[in-house]
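HUMAN: Now follow token order:
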Amino acid sequence: MVLQTSQNGCRKILQKEPLSSLPHEFENEIMKDKAKKLLANYSEYRKVPGDGSCFYRSFIYSYLEQLVKVSHEEELRLLGALEPMWEKFQRLHLPGSYSDLHDAFVGFILECMEQKQKLSVRGYQEWLFQESQNEQKFANILLYLRLVTAIEICTEVETFKSYITELGQGMPDAIGYCLEEVLPVEEDAQQVNLTALTNVLQVPLRVVNIDVSPIEELNIHIIYESPDSSVPTVTLLYRPGHYDIIYEKS
């Protein structure tokens, strides 16, 4: 997959592409056929950098992109869902400055609220795309999401034992796991990361899978469903080792 690279070497989120171009990315005929089947319900997709943070980057961008279509109550709900994280962080021995990363995240959410008041839907989405090209700003947001994921795993060990065999000894093992597998920016998100993050943020997440399994039907994995229909649903496209954003037909 070709990614846009800036002169300083940073890889960026790309503009939307028609989904009809997706099948051409695959040599495997099973994956190519599954990509073609997506055309019935989806119209576009957006490539993101193929690094360890592709899930977090795709997830937050898709969510932020949809904020312009909902009321300000959604941003307030999201920030409220994060309030218990500081107290949980204090009980753990995890590295990093929670307050600095939290402030960066909250600041950007408030900035989104301000921009969607001033701009049209199209204008807001163009503004967000330009903001996504600021790798330094987005890096702090992604680090915060990783830290929130780690806090949730470490404080809800019993919930996630079935996902991670290394959690047999409880919280000490969970902290060790997160130090090695969740917090480092080069580490890909596993199923437990998706579940932990969406449990905290309470943001619905669906993952459309393209793989080499012989099953003809599309595999759409619902990670989290919200009882509140006003919360934007994030829909991601997964092919082995990578997440992009996919858009349903209007």
